[in-house]
Write a structure and sequence with these properties.
The chain contains one helix and seven strands. The chain has a seven-stranded antiparallel sheet with strand order 2-1-5-6-7-4-3, covered by helices on one side. The longest helix has 8 residues. The protein is elongated.
Length: 138
């Protein structure tokens, strides 16, 4: 049985300035996907009935910031400073090293947290929300 380990995951990002490329030094990512439901219970029914409705997602990407962090890393970190963001930044969250298993979507960077401690690595946590469809190849 094949298992996926955290060391295989990676992130690719593009805020519209070029092609989607790898975010260097990604240490973790998360994606929470939720689906709203609508109550369609008819008058007189004895049990509730629901159907699926709108899907939304949010998550984060954790990065170690280094002197050699590339353009895509700089883009994902600084994209929070974009006002009137149209939500067209492209995300690919990979589960494996071959890039075949992934989640893809457009999104908006909603926040970043920078951390620097004496003797420790500089880290950045980037939060996002999805816009539009979330597709998966898993």
């Amino acid at each position: 049985m094949a298992f996926f380990r955290g060391e295989e995951g990676s992130v690719a990002f593009d805020n519209g300035s070029g092609s989607v490329g790898a975010v260097a030094s990604t240490t973790a990512w998360s994606l929470d996907v939720t689906k709203d439901t609508l109550d369609i219970t008819a008058h007189g029914d004895k049990s509730r009935k629901n159907i699926g409705s709108l899907i939304s997602g949010s998550g984060s990407v954790d990065i170690i910031y280094t002197a050699t962090s590339g353009d895509n890393t700089a883009e994902i970190i600084s994209d929070v400073l974009t006002q009137e963001d149209d939500g067209t930044a492209s995300f690919n969250l990979f589960l494996d090293t071959t890039g075949a298993k992934k989640f893809s979507f457009n999104g908006i960077i909603t926040g970043t947290t920078f951390s620097s401690s004496v003797g420790e690595l500089n880290t950045v946590s980037v939060n996002f929300v999805t816009t539009g469809d979330i597709t998966s190849a898993i």
